[in-house]
Design goal:
single chain; elongated; mainly alpha; about 0% strand
Length: about 475
């Protein structure tokens, strides 16, 4: 016991700390991507996969428990600990050699934790639990056979120090390998946190995560931040204060990760229900009845008034362990989305370029609700399509009164300067914004708009629309 207990406790501590403190969002996302239903039909489908059907069913059940991260992590750790003890029993290893028994558990753990973005395109059944269950079953079977065939211990006596040294080296090396191989990309984990906060309507949390980001964001992060600013009503005041970036997705295959991870969420919240439904259904056909897709299909059907279809998806979700829908949450979401629905939702093709479609669609939209006009105004600023600025600006001016959001004040001054034909002296633009614009004009006249000057002007003007318009070039949309 004095040899076994330290290794066991150390394994539990290492794995639980990494799972709960580092990759917790990854566990939650894994659960959303794991089909498991408490129905006879699902059980029959699992059994229909061949001799491993029962194992697939059990693995899917266990992996779905990642929805409660401490529960799913505890179940996985318990299974891996069982593998270590079963290995010692099967091979009749002496206690000092117990550290060798943790090589297989660490390896099985890494098979899951190193996947990162690949979890979205993985078609294996419950990758975190299937192989551990299979390996444990195999070890128990081999152990039983060895005990029948060989009735004495396989390991020589008197090698206590050698076995202990090998145990410590093997355990430490496996633990280090687990840490190194676990996918800890900061943008990936930040994207998952932002996405999951969006799904719960925790928009301020999305912005807090975006502010805490210390590296160039991916386009997915930029779009989730933009959505949160829209939902909180702060798009016109803060959007250009957040960094715009196009960091590459740190994945071996450059798939359309924004589409795979965020298309359904973005299209749904911006009222593009046809596209939200289309991608949820296509992904469901490709990757299975994952709760994430069913959630989108259910909510879109409700907003479309398709009661029978919505009931079908709701029943499926009610037979999951953790994804039963809350009617009040859905109603609050629906109330926020309905003002964006007064247009014909034609499925005209986005080629998987979610951001590009959203930007162009709203930038070219004319009329509609207040929310649609503001999205059209902001997205035309983002795409630098300024010809329609004044009609949209004037349409919203009565709504704003004397409190025009800061970025629209900045845009009004700049566009009047560039295009002429508009007297902004009577607009309720704050003296601070006017003075700041005058300083920018003077600085630009002296230095121009070269890349080096962009760096010099960034500390004072980097959070303005002016800086975005003149110095943020080569906008990458996906």
């Amino acid at each position: 016991m004095k040899y076994r207990l330290p290794f066991t406790l150390l394994f539990i501590v290492i794995v639980m700390v990494v799972m709960m403190a580092v990759v917790r969002p990854y566990l939650i996302e894994t659960a959303q991507l794991t089909p498991f239903f408490t129905t006879r039909v699902f059980f029959s489908e699992m059994l229909g996969r061949g001799g491993l059907g029962v194992i697939y069913y059990a693995a899917s059940f266990l992996q779905s428990c990642f929805a409660v991260p401490w529960l799913g992590a505890s179940l996985l750790v318990a299974l891996l600990v069982a593998i270590a003890y079963a290995t010692r029993w099967a091979l009749r290893l002496p206690n000092p050699a117990f550290g060798l028994c943790w090589i297989i558990p660490f390896y099985l753990l890494v098979r899951f934790t190193r996947m990162g973005y690949q979890i979205y395109v993985c078609k294996e059944v419950a990758v975190a639990f299937t192989y551990p269950i299979l390996i444990l079953s195999a070890i128990m079977l081999v152990g039983a056979l060895l005990r029948i065939i060989i009735r004495r211990k396989l390991c020589p006596q008197g090698w206590k120090r050698t076995f202990l040294s090998l145990s410590i080296i093997a355990f430490a090396g496996s633990a280090y390998w687990f840490w190194e191989q676990t996918y800890r990309d900061a943008n990936f984990l930040s994207s998952l946190q932002m996405k999951q906060a969006c799904e719960k309507g925790e928009w301020e949390q999305v912005l807090r995560i975006a502010r805490s980001n210390r590296q160039e964001p991916t386009r997915l992060q930029v779009n989730l931040t933009r959505l949160a600013l829209y939902e909180t009503g702060e798009m016109g005041n803060q959007l250009f204060a957040f960094p715009d970036g196009a960091a590459a997705y740190n994945a071996p295959e450059q798939q359309q990760w924004l589409r795979l991870m965020g298309a359904q969420l973005l299209y749904y919240n911006y009222g593009k229900l046809g596209f939200a439904y289309r991608w949820a259904m296509e992904d469901l056909v490709e990757y299975g009845e994952r709760p994430m897709y069913l959630r989108t299909l259910h909510r879109v059907a409700l907003l479309n008034g398709e009661t029978s279809l919505a009931e079908k998806y709701d029943q499926a979700l009610r037979h999951t362990l953790f994804y039963k829908e809350d009617a009040d949450d859905i109603q609050r979401e629906a109330e926020a989305i309905r003002p964006l629905l007064n247009y014909t939702d034609q499925l005209d093709g986005d080629n998987g370029l979610v951001e590009f479609y959203l930007l162009q669609s709203f930038a070219l939209t004319e009329g509609g609700s207040r929310q649609m006009v503001e999205l059209s105004l902001m997205f035309s600023l983002i795409t630098k399509q300024l010809d329609g600025f004044w009609p949209r600006f004037m349409a919203l001016l009565p709504e704003w009164g004397s409190n025009i959001p800061r970025h629209y004040q900045e845009a009004a001054l700049m566009i009047a300067q560039l295009q002429g034909g508009m007297d902004t002296s009577q607009l309720p633009i704050s003296p601070e914004v006017r003075q700041r614009f005058e300083r920018l004009v003077e600085a630009s006249a002296q230095m121009g708009d070269s890349a080096s000057n962009a760096h010099s002007l960034r500390p004072e003007f980097g959070d303005t629309y002016w800086y975005y318009y003149f110095f943020v070039e080569g906008l990458k949309t996906t």
